[in-house]
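Lay summary. Proteins are chains of building blocks that fold into shapes, and those shapes determine what they do. In this project we predict the shape from the chain. Here is one chain we studied, written as its sequence of building blocks.
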Amino acid sequence: MDIEKLEAAAAAQGTTVKSLKTSGAGKEEVEAAVAGLVAAKKALADAITAALAALPEGAPEAEALKAKLPPPPKPSNKDKKAAKDGDAAKEAARKAAEEQKLAARAKKKEAAAAKGVKEGGGKGGPAGKGADGAKPDGAASKAPAAKPNGSGAAAAAPVHAKPMSNKNYELHFGAAAPPLLAVVAARLVRQEVALRRVDPKALPSGCDSVLYLPGGSRSLRGCGAIARYFARLAPPELGAYGAAGDALSASEVDEWIEWLSASGPPAAATPPLLARLARHLRMRSFVTGHAASLADAAAWLLLRQLPAPDKACSGAGVHVARWWGCVEALPAFKEAAQLLFGAAKDAGSLEIPLPNAERGKVVTRFAPEPSGHLHIGHVKAAMLSAHFATQYEGKMILRLDDTNPSKEKGDYETAIVGDLQRLDILPAKVTHTSDYFDKILKLATKMLQDGVAFIDPSPKEEQQALRLQRKPSPHRDAAVEENLRLWAEMQAGSAEGVKCCMRAKIDPASDNGALRDPTIFRCNLEPHHRTKDKYKVYPTYDLACPIVDAWEGVTHALRDRQYSDRDHQYVWFQQALQLRKVDLWGFSRINFVKTLLSKRKLQWLVDEGRADGWDDPRFPTVAGILRRGMTVQGLKAFILSMGASKNTNLMGWDKIWAFNKAVIDPSVPRYTALLADGLVPLSLEGAPPAPFAETMAAHPKDESLGKKVRFFGPTVLLQAEDAVANAVAGPVLTRLTAEERRDRRPARAEGLIAVGDPLVGLGGPAASLRRPGPLASLGRRPLIRLGRRVGRGGRGDGVCLG
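And here is the predicted shape, written in a compact code that computers can read:
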């Protein structure tokens, strides 16, 4: 009986602590309540321990008592700080002892060196004399004597600075010849090394780099020897010097390093290296062993010194491109690239660990409302959910949150599934919140019976006013029987029931507005697109989401940070309903400059006929931007550039189209088109009277994309605005190639003009043309621009002329 009382007291004290924290009580009051909770749990644990000691071994009630044992209390901030201070003091004492040992060793060595110098200077004979046979003076006795060379002149011994008591590794090298492989090897095995650029004259003769070991007593010379030392220093399982315990693998590392060292400069060594890698990597992920080794580092270093290493590796075949992408993504190589080659850091990264994630057990979900098509703001949520599911070898669920029949349609569900397929996002399964309506209704009834929810028949305006005033509803403490009666009226859709809503009893005075007794059920008499007229009440997203997440086995719910205020509400529902815990992870939403993302407003534009539909190329929907010319690869690259950051992003459309251009530019044929309306003919004097055609490459830098036919003639067509803007009589016009336009060199005056080619007057420099419409500014383009390029995510619906 005592144990039951102590257990009840601990539970009551825990409730008090929660209420104080939720209500924003003072720090001292909360700390006092927490201390009382710790004391109550300790008394309960002591009583249970005593009871267990009194029971005979193997008693059946022992397991029940053990289950009641409270978990050990978490350390407070003060305890953590005290432990941290204690650890810091121990570490400081250890470092002080090491410094004393190093100082004693250095002093001992200095004494020994001084003794040796003294003994050498006191002896007679040729070694102790100078060139004339006289004994050296005091200054000379402190330095080693210069040995005579063959000609009789004294040769000075090389002198270099040597740290006598360095605590860490120090790598000294000349600025003109940094030991690249040694630096990459240190990064590869995560060895901290202090880099020191010194005067080459201060280095030992014939040596470009020296590694001083801690203490300064020993050193290594030469980049290769230093790199091999670091690789051998790492744990064998890391594989920095080939597979662990495999002498052949280690020898292969040496063979690759020696071969690469003898290959010459990067420009000459690259072709044989790429050819060898293409053969060697057909059945391998890395050059040697099962992880990135020193051989991978040596090959990567040589290729990294090329002007365009990515292009060189992508052109060497799929195996080299795969290997290059793999090593480039490793943190060690990223750090080395930033340190040695000035590579820019990634703008964003998706490699962010999820809390409490276990490989093979992660389940994420993407839960859009089927009230419209997916837009660019949804893409990040969908891609992040799919990415983390793939990263942890788990699965992603697509759940259509169909809890508002006034806005939702079956056509929108089909469109959402189709948009995800076009984005290469394939969920493990597709579910609906409406699949769980029956179970959610039963749970709502239980909430009324348990007193954690109530029915509020007051008008909506009155509810809003009381919430703003942080006052409870007058119906909050209504009897359970009255709540159940009104709940039955709501489910029947009666005149009385439609005036009511169900609200959760959380805290009407909370600083967080989402916790002020939120609405969790409301009436809606419109037929549901799946369940028809079966239900008259529907749960809100705030209630359905934590419930269905727990029931479907979701482990991590990724939510837009605009819902951060509702995260406490999410946790409250799961605790109050005794559901399985789901970890929440917030990310930032995408905001675009001068872009409308509201589905309600986009729907108005469609209904008013101001847009062709949800796939209108001017819409920020997935269907719209893909129809406009966006590629899935470009869209993914754009999302990756932001990463999984929690900072708010305000983006411009020029950036996303720049990513798209980088994807399609190398592989898209070049064509030219004119809008069909408002074409103006332009006649050229002195041109051949008969039109003719010329076959040329469809892409100026890739002939494998085929050929195209371009027509030439004395009369061509201009857009009306171009003709008006450039209605100048007299100048001689000629077409320029891309190189000629870049260099501003005079072109050949053949009197010919190709349809679609820019024109420039020979009499002076190219003018700047600014024109209205979607192409707002052409900037430093040539004087006349015929037509618009298509195939780069721009406008279509024109007349293609070649």
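What the prediction tells us: The chain has 26 helices and 24 strands.
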